[in-house]
Amino acid sequence: MYPKDYRYTKEHEWIKVDGGNGTIGITDYAQHELGDVVFVEMPKVGTQLEARQSFGTIESVKAVSEIFSPVAGEVIETNPALADTPEQINKDPHGAAWLIKVRLADSKEVSTLMDAAAYEAYISDKAKEHSA
Amino acid sequence: MRYLPKSPSERQEMLEAIGTKSISELFQSIPEKFRLNAPLSLPGPLSEPEIIQYFQARAAENSRGYTSFLGAGVYSHVRSVVTDALVQRGEFLTSYTPYQAEFAQGTLTAIFEFQTLMCQLTGQEVANASMYDGSTALTEAVLMAERITGRHRVLVARSVHPEYRHVLQTYAKNLGIEIEEVGYTESGQLDRAALKKESFKQAAAIVVQSPNFFGVIEQLPALAEAAHASGALLVTGIAEAVSLGILRPPGDADIVAMEGQSFGISPSYGGPYVGVIATRNQFVRQMPGRLAGQTTDAEGHRGFVLTLATREQHIRREKATSNICTNEALFALVATIHLSLLGKEGLREQALQNLAKARFAQAELEKIPGVRRVFSGPSFNEFVLEFPRSVKMVNQDLLREKIIGPFALGTHYPELTKRALVCVTETTPRAEIERLAAAIRKILERPV
């Protein structure tokens, strides 16, 4: 379910690093919790982000949620397809529905994030909390 | 809301039910020094005949038989008794804002109709369920422009209603929004040459009012072009909504903020009124307040919902697009019923009567020696005249003739002393306009 080469945050974003750039999206767990996504508000290209800074919002039928950047960097691209088809986030959150690409401020920063195994353990703990 | 009386024994019963001995015990958590330890200082109860007498005495204090030439943001227009009869129905009059939205289909239907009318009048794509009044609508429009553009400076025409600008300044003060005022030319319109200033390049919005506070109609297409060329939005305020009966809808504006008082709401004591905010579809998520939408229920019937409520404060808390949570539903309903009664032709005819009577008044008043028109730009039902002496002094004399005189612009504009803003609507009879002209002529002929 959760790609092995991605890194994850406690706020349920993922980042995939490719050289000096990173692609950022939200996890399958996050899309499931949000419900049907109806709108995504994106940052402007060129925006400088700090790690854990909010860069946009995702609006579902139930709520509007902030999206946080896993790392520091500059926004170099936003996913143009999501303006017309935000529901892609529910269908393919780890692939076609990526949100933004950033130029990493520090390529070593991602190593501080959870890997797939750690993230799966984290969300299974969360699931237990819910059922408790 | 209903008044529910309760007797001392009923009170005792209720206290026992929750396990307390006295009402004062309920307030134990409030520190002693903050508690009121004496009964409220209110007059005692009155019998029914005494209450009727009291209100008759208050009603007798009202001034009757006066003719008003005062506008400046509040306008006397025709109102139908039909409107009052309908809005006073308990289903509308006593219902609170629809928090249990889908249960209130009647209210939502009325709001949806209101939004549709406002879009048709303003030439915009989406309007919300209403705002408090014109001044707060204009302020919220500026906050919207700030969110959309990410810029924090706004250019506001000095010809925008001074009280609207005051409300905007109050909001802007602690939000880090910088306000720069832009002057007017001899036409009474915004000074477009001033927009070329370097500091104006990074503006979130150009804010104008049309007809503006001087009654002059702004050149909105040119202003929209100037705003868009520098990446700013054009925010257009409207204080006199009847002007939309003949003016081109302000479709060039990116956000329209309007006072709806002219649509069937009596001037009262300056409120409550109803604000309107309308914009382009692309900005709908940055629009404050609530929005009624049309949908189809599980059985295929047309129905209404509150849509995009996820942006509102009961869900988004401090991150909501605005802290406005309620709306002026009853006054939005007044405007809706009023406009439905008037119809498209009726509104147009009303606007034409305003224009014709204002033109007549202007011509009559300009014949008086020493009185001249101040601004050359096109106007609707208000215009500015220069008097050879203080407007306030002239007004004092007019009051003795049972005439409420024009607004003294010097109140808000030090450079415009001796300038009078005259308002004439369809409610002003021709004979009263002639009486005003004769009275002013007589006053000005007298030595000071």
Task: Please give a quick description of this structure.
The complex is a heterodimer of chains A (132) and B (448). Chain A is an alpha+beta fold. Chain A has 3 helices and 9 strands; from the N terminus they run E-E-E-H-E-E-E-E-E-H-E-H.
SSE topology:
The complex is a heterodimer of chains A (132) and B (448).
Chain A: E1 7-8, E2 13-18, E3 21-26, H1 28-34, E4 37-41, E5 48-49, E6 54-60, E7 64-68, E8 73-78, H2 88-91, E9 100-104, H3 116-131
Antiparallel strand pairs in A: 1-2, 2-3, 3-9, 4-6, 5-8, 6-7, 8-9
Chain B: H1 8-17, H2 23-26, H3 48-60, E1 67-68, H4 81-87, H5 90-93, H6 105-122, E2 126-127, H7 134-149, E3 153-157, H8 162-172, E4 178-182, E5 203-209, H9 220-229, E6 233-238, E7 255-259, E8 275-279, E9 291-296, E10 302-307, H10 313-316, H11 329-366, E11 372-373, E12 382-386, H12 391-400, E13 403-404, E14 407-408, E15 419-423, H13 430-445
Parallel strand pairs in B: 1-13, 3-4, 3-5, 5-6, 6-7
Antiparallel strand pairs in B: 2-8, 7-8, 9-10, 11-12, 12-15, 14-15
Helix pairs in contact in B: 4-11, 6-11, 7-8, 11-13
Greatest interface and its participating residue counts: A-B, 10 and 7 residues
How many distinct folded domains of chain B?
2
- What is the CATH class name of chain A? Mainly Beta
Radius of gyration of chain B: 25 Å
Task: State the CATH topology of chain A.
Answer: OB fold (Dihydrolipoamide Acetyltransferase, E2P)
Strand content of chain B: 5-15%
In total, the number of strands of chain A is 9
Beta fraction of the residues of chain A?
Answer: 25-35%
What is the CA-based Rg of chain A, rounded?
Answer: 14 Å
